[in-house]
Each structure stands twice: as structure tokens, then as C-alpha cells.
Amino acid sequence: MRQALLRLAQLVPARARPWLARRRSLGRLVTRALGGQGLQIVTLHGGALDGITLELDPSHEKAFWSGTHEPAIQRLLSSEVTAEMVCWDVGAHIGFFSLLLARRARLVVALEAHPVNAARLRRNVELNDLPVHVVEAAVWREAGTVSLRVAPMSGMHAVVDSADDGTVTVAAITLDQLLADYPPPDLVKIDVEGAEVAVLEGATTALQHTSFVLCETHGRDARSGAYARLLELGFSVSEAGDDYLVARRVAS
Length: 252
Prior knowledge:
Layout: H1 2-10, H2 17-22, H3 24-35, E1 40-43, E2 53-56, H4 62-66, H5 71-80, E3 86-90, H6 96-102, E4 107-112, H7 115-126, E5 132-136, E6 138-139, E7 144-149, E8 158-160, E9 167-173, H8 175-178, E10 187-190, H9 196-201, E11 212-216, H10 220-232, E12 235-240, E13 244-249
Parallel strand pairs: 3-4, 3-10, 4-5, 6-9, 10-11
Antiparallel strand pairs: 1-2, 7-8, 7-9, 11-13, 12-13
Helix pairs in contact: 1-3
């Protein structure tokens, strides 16, 4: 019975998935069929990742499965990336936006701090023949180690000042350090749950020739700090909704 439901759920057309995801009873039935046993390999039908294969748990990550995960950001990144670009995805989670970028770019460097997320990211890269290099590390203002607060939701782990029973210690690097191993980025996406300013403080050289930065901000202080730092680095900055800053290189 469950296998029949699984096959049926995978055949739901793209245009129906957002509608289905909003219906509690029907959505629960389908996502339970897909994700009741944990991670499943699912082909996405809808959004910018139509046709991509992801290993995910649709009972908790149905926005990925339904193609409804941050649709405005999907459209924005899709419109900005071109075939010759190198893109860095800072805070890549399980690779949704890394793979979106890699469909169009020549190279994506995907950085993820949490070991479980990084393992899932590598798995999703393996499932798709796309040019993504995974770096398992937190991005910070300096190299070394940092304490990562483990959140109930896998996309919300955050760097904190001190270690305790709810944290794990992970390696930390700067974006400037990445230049030793990778070409400088044309486009950078940042989603680091409050560490935006620290990431930008360690990117003085890395962003010198970057044309576009999309930075999600978490809180008023992080937003104002990231805004000021992007201006300092030579970008014009605008706001995209309540959470994102869009930075474009000012022509010299």
C-alpha cells in the first residue's frame, strides 16, 4: 500500500503540488507516503529545480518536494547566474540552491558547517551530474574552529559564542582562504543564520571581483551590519523583502 502511495505521490503534477502542500489532510497523506520512513530519493517536479533528484524527507521538507521553497529567491538567482560564472553558496544546507546555481554556472562551491547537513549535501551532489564542490566548514571572520548551535530544524544551525551541551565544534574558514583552492566568485549566496557580518569580514579579497551577492539576514543588527559591510566592499545594496539584501558591484 505504501509503495502504491509513493508512486502516486511522485506523479502529482508540478502545478498541483503547491495547492496540495497547503491542504492539511491531503498534503499529510502524500508527504507521509513519501517521507514516513525518513529520507527518500525524490525527483522534483516544479520550480527552478524541476527534474533534479534530492534525498530528503518530504514529511518535513515538503517545500523542496513541492517546488515552493522561496520561489522569489529561486527566480532571482535563476535570472542572475550565467554559464561562465563561478558561484559560492555559503550555508548550502542540503544543496537546494547549490544545485539550482550549478544547472547554469560552470562551478559552484557549496559550504556547509554541520556534518549531517554536509553529508546530505554530498549525497545530493552525487545524485546529480552537476559541477558542485562541497566544503565542510563554517565560514567566519577568521580560521580555526567555532561552536555551532544545533537547532531542531536542520536549516537553522547557527554559530554561537561559546560551547555547551547543545553545540558541536566545527572547522571554520574565511572566504578569502578559499581563493587558494578555487577561482574567485562571480556570484555569492549567503545564508548563515546570523553570522552574515562575520562572513563578510573575512571576504575582503574574495569579493573584489564579485558582481552579485545575495545575503539573507537574521535580525536588525545583522541586517544593518551586513548592509554597511557590503557598501564598504564596493557594492550598491537594496532590500529584497524583509530578509534579504541584494548587492551589485558598482561600476568603476
